[in-house]
Amino acid sequence: MSADQVVQVRDLVVVRGETEVLPGISLDVGRGVTGLLGPSGCGKTTLMRCLVGAQQVRSGTVEVLGLPAGSPPLRSRIGYVTQSASVYDDLTVAENLRFFARVLGVGRGDVDAALAAVDLTELRGRVVGRLSGGQRSRVSLAVALLGSPDLLVLDEPTVGLDPVLRRDLWALFHRLAAGGAAVLVSSHVMDEAERCDRLLLMREGRVIAEGTPASVRERTGAADVEQAFLAIVEGRA
């Protein structure tokens, strides 16, 4: 794995029941903001679960930061946000962050910084179960930011958010990347592709295109990434 590579996946096969969800894919993720885009059910979440060591695999290899995915030393170096909020509804925002900060061994300053990063400082005393869906998602993101992880794996983090908050979160992702983190963001909304430094386009468990948004458009002659995706799927590129 080169110094610029953070994730290296080779010949990864994942089977659930009788369904081959990932049929032997290979890909790399480097520094910066990488968008993992594709329709719902194409394998994005399964792939992300493999990266954080939460998914049983049939065969293949997954290395993260030079170590096999799921290795104990990676636990404090990866921030993971699932599609559904993974925080405690009966605790306040601040109580949630303080709990996870103790688990990770980070200080109160990290808690305050994470809350500020996702614009939740004024809601720190609110019980999470009384927050909106978008606010609860931001609490999960704040937890993932604790300890300044080297890799952030974000599964559909902007779904259901208003345009202003979406814009602000993408700006945050790029600030984190500028600080040295690798950020992998999944989405089924193709218009978010232009916000990424690099793209991995998935369909039916396979990576069908990768590269910068500009290179993906250039490959197909399309005006935007959504049209490029359709052209690749339909065999026009």
Short key terms for the protein model shown above:
alpha/beta, 237 residues, single chain, six-stranded mixed beta sheet
What's this model, at a glance?
By secondary structure, the chain is α/β, with parallel strands linked by helices. The chain has helices at residues 44-51, 93-104, 108-117, 133-145, 163-178, 213-220, 225-233, and strands at 5-16, 19-30, 32-37, 59-64, 67-68, 78-81, 151-155, 182-187, 198-203, 206-211. The two termini are 30 Å apart.
SS summary, helix count: 7
Question: Hey, roughly how much beta strand do the residues contain?
Answer: 25-35%
Going by helix content, strand content and strand pairing, the class is alpha/beta
Described by strand count, sense and barrel closure, the largest sheet is: 6 strands, mixed
Distance between the termini: 30 Å
Question: Taking Cα atoms only, what radius of gyration do you get, to the nearest Å?
Answer: 18 Å
Q: How many strands in all? A: 10
